[in-house]
């Protein structure tokens, strides 16, 4: 499993799970990105042109909306640590409101307190992003919004944490490109037209 990642440092034994420390050492030396769940390193596959355009336009729209606020918008190169599961993931877009809580080491490349996470769905990731990954994301105390954007059609699914009822999330779904999604916890909205404007399936 790990022998294909890189040549140094040496890969962990194939007979047992990989520790978080071993994963981080391997990941920081690897030219490719991998996520880490329950002792297992998972390679991240490539994404379609539309996936990248939707991700980039969402990032830009959020950056413009949150300029001069206490919230910071970051792309998919920043790693998120999910403490409850000791998992490491790379969301497509994340927003951190307030000071980022960086994992305490010299690299400062991993945070643990996102307020909003965005995943752009592809055919190979949609089931995981809706299921196991969202279950992990729900354990992040700071997370208030989880937004899923389809990369093959206009389709948004927004989950918002209910602050009064522990474990409850409100769900909003739309296929209307004119829709505007309320991201109240970060203090802005997202117009779907801005996220999807460059997608190949959207008429100009």
Description:
- The longest helix has 17 residues, at 49-65.
- The strands form 4 sheets. A 6-stranded mixed beta sheet has the order 3-6-8-9-10-11. The protein has a 3-stranded mixed beta sheet with strand order 5-4-7, with no helix packed on it.
- By secondary structure, the chain is α+β, with helices and mostly antiparallel strands.
- It has helices at 20-29, 49-65, 126-130, 132-137, 192-196; strands at residues 34-37, 40-43, 71-74, 79-82, 87-89, 93-97, 110-111, 116-121, 145-150, 156-161, 169-174, 180-183, 188-191.
- The radius of gyration is 17 Å and the shape is globular.
Features:
5 helices; single chain; 21% helix; disordered N terminus; globular; 204 residues; alpha+beta
Fold blueprint:
Elements: H1 20-29, E1 34-37, E2 40-43, H2 49-65, E3 71-74, E4 79-82, E5 87-89, E6 93-97, E7 110-111, E8 116-121, H3 126-130, H4 132-137, E9 145-150, E10 156-161, E11 169-174, E12 180-183, E13 188-191, H5 192-196
Parallel strand pairs: 4-7, 8-9
Antiparallel strand pairs: 1-2, 3-6, 4-5, 6-8, 9-10, 10-11, 12-13
Q: Strands of the biggest beta sheet: in what spatial order?
A: 3-6-8-9-10-11
Structural class category: alpha+beta
Regarding quaternary structure, what we see is single chain
Fraction of residues in β-strands: 25-35%
Mean pLDDT: 90
Report the count of strand segments. 13
Question: Rg to the nearest angstrom?
Answer: 17 Å
Largest sheet: 6 strands, mixed
Question: What is the string of helix and strand elements?
Answer: HEEHEEEEEEHHEEEEEH
Percentage of residues in helical conformation: 10-25%
First and last CA, distance:
45 Å
Q: Could you say which overall geometry the principal axes of the C-alpha atoms support?
A: globular
Total of DSSP H or I helical runs spanning 4+ residues: 5
Residue windows where pLDDT falls under 50 for at least 5 positions: 1-15
